[in-house]
Amino acid sequence: MHKGENEPVGRASLFSGISRNVFVLGLTSFLTDFSTELYYPLLPIFLTKVIGTGVMFVGVIEGVAESTASLLKLVSGWLSDRLNRRKALVIGGYTLSGLTRPIIAISTMGWHVLAARLIDRIGKGFRTAPRDVLIADSTDPDHRGKAFGFHRSMDHAGAVVGPLVAFILMKFIGEQYRTIFWLSSIPAILAIIVLAAFVKDIRRKDDGKKLPALTLKPFNQNFKIFLPIVILFTLGNSSDAFLILRAGNLGVATLLIPILWVVLHIVKMLSSMPGGIWSDKAGRRLVIITGWGVYSLIYLGFAFAKAQWHIWALFAVYGIYFGLTEGAEKAFVADLVPSDLRGTAYGIYNFAIGIAAFPSSSIMGFIWETFSPETAFIFGAILSMASVLLLLAFVKGAGNEKTP
């Protein structure tokens, strides 16, 4: 790590271990998620009510979009190791995503939105793995969970501001979805400017090692076992668009959907950094198992919810799952692999998620329409609990992990 990129942003204990790079990348994610969440909570309603697509098509859009992103994360992570450059790929990815807001604003058919979501996810695919490597390389290992937790907290803070602004806009201009989609371009542009101006690339020293190939061979058995378990969990982890649709089915007003989204992201924001810090102290595996267990219980709750207040409570507790798992999983990957293979490892990890993302949302939509929403959520809960048991039985801890 270079001194400048690893300088703490302040002396306060809350930010100890948070480098300048991590802070700026967090600010970039804040602005980007502000942009995304300004329109995303309204997108399922826009698709079904304005454009007239079916629920299953919503699932197809989300599945295709997320799978595309994860496939590209595989390539971009490996490429960043090969090129020994991260920042250029990160900037390119954020730029592509920023271009999609106007496309959604002028969409008149379902495939227009599908195309926009694909471009958006292509951008995410290019940026995610190199960005995660920058975070890991800019942070001391003892604070790695905290750094990833901070980044996720900033991301979720943007997701709090975005829906709040959407709510205020809808209050004054009504359900003018396209206007809101246009306005979401502004914070996306600011994110690119901040990233380009203040993040510094970190390049490894040329130690004569052979450039990494896109293969699992260099990685240890623990990492290789972790991957299929992540795939199984992801098969039960469908798009949150279905949670929004469930809320609508139980009578939550369209005007309140952005506020419901805010509640979720406030909990994500408040729990992400503590979750990361807990993983630094207690071990990644314990925190991930706890988070996946919470997810299973939440999906059971969505299956049997009967009243609007159930939805509000479930959305709030659902945020804890993200706080416990997002930072811990990424820190766990960094713990398990050599530093010169981190880009490739993050790419493979995200690819593992991606190959399950499309069938996950598509299966959820199929079960929802063929059987019932209740059955669809029970299916997700069963897969997530199976993943907990497999992780507990077959994956060993790393670093400060506490194992039975």
Structure report:
- The chain is mainly alpha-helical and 404 residues long.
- Helix 4 runs antiparallel to helix 9 and helix 13 runs antiparallel to helix 14.
- The longest helix is centred in the middle third of the chain and has 30 residues.
- The protein is built from 16 helices and no strands.
- It starts with 19 loop residues before the first helix and ends in a 10-residue tail after the last helix.
- It has a single domain, classed as Up-down Bundle (Growth Hormone, Chain: A).
Outline of the structure:
The protein has one domain: Up-down Bundle (Growth Hormone, Chain: A).
How is this fold's topology laid out?
Elements: H1 20-39, H2 43-51, H3 55-83, H4 87-98, H5 100-105, H6 110-137, H7 144-173, H8 177-183, H9 185-198, H10 221-235, H11 241-249, H12 257-282, H13 284-304, H14 308-336, H15 342-370, H16 373-394
Helix pairs in contact: 1-7, 1-9, 3-6, 3-15, 4-6, 4-9, 6-15, 7-12, 7-14, 10-15, 10-16, 12-13, 12-14, 13-14, 13-16, 15-16
Q: End-to-end distance, in Å?
A: 34 Å
Order of helices and strands: HHHHHHHHHHHHHHHH
Helicity level: over 70%
- How much beta, percentage-wise? under 5%
Average pLDDT over all residues: 85
Largest sheet: none
* Spans where pLDDT lies below 50 across 5 or more residues: none
CATH class: Mainly Alpha
Query: Count of DSSP E strands?
Result: 0
**Total number of domains:** 1
- The structural class is mainly alpha
Q: What name does the CATH topology carry?
A: Growth Hormone, Chain: A
Rounded radius of gyration (Å): 20 Å
| Tally of helical runs | 16
CATH homologous superfamily annotation: MFS general substrate transporter like domains
